Amino acid sequence: MEAAVFHLLEFSPSHKVQTVHAVLLLVVYLAALMGNLLIFMLTVLDARLQTPMYFFLRNLSFLDFCYISTTVPKSIVNSFTHDSSISVSGCALQVFFIIDLGFTEMAILTSMACDRYVAICQPLHYAAIMEHGACVKMVALSWLSGVVSGLTHVAAMFSLPFCGSNQVHQFFCDVPQLLSLLDSKVIINEIRVIVFITCLVIICFALITLSYVYIFSTIMRIPSKEARSKTFSTCIPHLVVVMLFLTSGSVAYVKPVSSSPSFVDLLLPVFYTIVPPTLNPIIYSLRNRDIKVALGRQCVRETD
């Protein structure tokens, strides 16, 4: 059967509970948008934040702004209207942006790890290596690789016939759920694309791991305990973001899809689609003195 529309998972059969769910999700969504927009604007407006680290953070904030907007607004609208349907074209767009923005985020997190490696392990060469042109190329390559991954994935998946049920057991068009609706006889092309993208993710993870092996090795050789602690604290936010995003995403995509998803199956996608874009502004602002000082300067400027 070729699906004309898909039906996303409803949070509850009760209209009242669905409305409460929509309101809570809307609050989270607005908090994520405001947090990421705040960091984006600060890193654009404040002259002291025009460094490679904040250039990558600016792109990460903009990316998270787009990423959470791919899935959450549709879920909110569905809950308010009590209509779980999504068109095939709408579903294809969701898949494209999820893969595109998800891989771009992984690539930018890798670039941020490389930036921290150069800053800590090769500080004398930092200005030469991480000059603006090189940073722009790294970010452009990250976005381009995400677009190529998204287009390849959508072309492979939506050129195949869907069969059986058109019920997607998730609040958005999640790739593992859609794979379970494909005819197993013609799924080989999609599997090849998944293997290719997985290899790219493994390369990113290997580069991040290698960077932090060298970073921690360098930090441990710093004689001053205070300097060691300060240097280590600059790496913590990035590590938290990487581990949260990569771990939840990997488990969700590797775990076999069940015809009757458990609570864990429903919760996992939240940790790589909603939690990172919502927590990233908090993680990077609360532990970052430069961001807090820049915010204070902007507030003083507004009141003058």
TrEMBL record:
Gene Ontology MF terms in the entry: G protein-coupled receptor activity; olfactory receptor activity
G-protein coupled receptors family 1 profile domain segment(s): 35-284
Source domain of life: Eukaryota
UniProt keyword Transmembrane helix, yes or no: yes
GO (cellular component) term, any one: plasma membrane
Keywords recorded for this protein, A-Z: Cell membrane, G-protein coupled receptor, Membrane, Olfaction, Receptor, Sensory transduction, Transducer, Transmembrane, Transmembrane helix
Subcellular localization, as worded in the UniProt entry: Cell membrane
Keyword Transport: no
Membrane topology, as annotated: Multi-pass membrane protein
Transmembrane intervals: 20-45, 140-162, 191-215, 236-254, 266-286
Function comment: Odorant receptor.
Family: Belongs to the G-protein coupled receptor 1 family.
Protein name: Olfactory receptor
